[in-house]
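JOB MANIFEST
job_type = single_chain_structure
chain_count = 1
residues = 313
[input]
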Amino acid sequence: MAAPTGGWTDALLRRARDWVADDPDPITRAELADLLDAAEAGDVGARADVADRFAADLDFGTAGLRGRLGAGPNRMNLAVVIRTAAGIASWLRSSAEPGAAADVARRGVAIGFDARHRSADFAEASAAVFAAAGIRAHVLPGPLPTPVLAFAVRHLGAGAGVMVTASHNPPQDNGYKVYDGTGRQIVTPTDAEIADAMGAVDRVSSVPRTGPDDPDIVRVGPELEAAYVAAAASVGLVPEARDVALAYTAMHGVGAGTFRRVLAAAGFAPAAEVAAQVEPDPDFPTVAFPNPEEPGALDAAVDLASQRNADAV
């Protein structure tokens, strides 16, 4: 959303100051407080920035949330994540069949995250909200690709899943995908039901959260990824076809380790990897826009494929 040129009012200032008072994160609390000081001193750019941050709430829809990191309701931050997790907990309990609330709590929510800025923080905050609501939180054992989270929902028998990721958005963004108990991303009307539950949260500071050692926060071990690898390796339209030369780029995401394991388990030779892009890096330093559909994003992988006479990228 483009920053507006106007919109600075006393009501906006009061709303922004109230956000600072309610924000549980010292990082974004200080960020917005400094911005407000500049805005009150007459800084036109700061006023436009504040107006943009409070122009709307981040839309929660079938893709969940995505937005730029920063303070305010029109950004991705800890306060927005806590409100969202509280909404999901409320939706899970209200959508349960009569008498099935205990089963929903036992099945819980699987939580995955990537290596973007604040992803691990947002995952831990979500787990703390779910656990405080009496809903078991299954936290995956580190940054893993999104398909592993979708698999985990069904493998663990969870009632829902959350993946902290912005997929192919720019480096300054993060996001929050929500899955139902089938391992699929939510669809309408579930998104509206969760959005309504989020809207019912009056103050973020009043949302209960537990500590990281709560027994309802379950730390999933490496056996989850091993199960995913085995399941992925067992799928093949032409199971006997293994003589394939591949070039691969992780594009600074978290897929490389899992991809290598799947290839090995399925009997493929290792892929040629774009070395400069294989390690996770939330700043995505070698691509202007980390989306394979964007011009130039796959240039390094295509060049490598040409050098190695690969059959596919």
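[summary]
The longest strand covers residues 173-180.
The two ends are 34 Å apart (CA to CA).
exit_status = 0
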